[in-house]
Amino acid sequence: MVDSRDRSRMSEARHELHCLVADLDLTNIPILILANKQDLPSMSVHEVAYALRLRHIRDRDWCIKWCSIIHRAGLYDGLDWLSNLLS
């Protein structure tokens, strides 16, 4: 989960994500990114995807979905994607 409002921490999130992608123990594990706080003025899902450089991840399935945890919105779209992928 990424805080879509916090632009200052996107580079840190990108670094951590790409460290996980480089971990050989996690090869072929799908990645679900939830762009949280979409109910507030924040980066769009496309902006978050760009900031995280998701297009560079080519060795596994990944998906980015918007959500607002406080309003319980969007979370299940991402979980449905993951569930369908794993079934």
UniProtKB/TrEMBL annotation:
GO terms for molecular function: GTP binding; GTPase activity. This is Uncharacterized protein. GTP binds at residues 36-39. It holds the Pfam family Arf. The lineage of its organism: Eukaryota, Amoebozoa, Tubulinea, Elardia, Arcellinida. InterPro entries: P-loop_NTPase, Small_GTPase_ARF, Small_GTPase_ARF/SAR. It comes from Arcella intermedia. Keywords: GTP-binding, Nucleotide-binding.
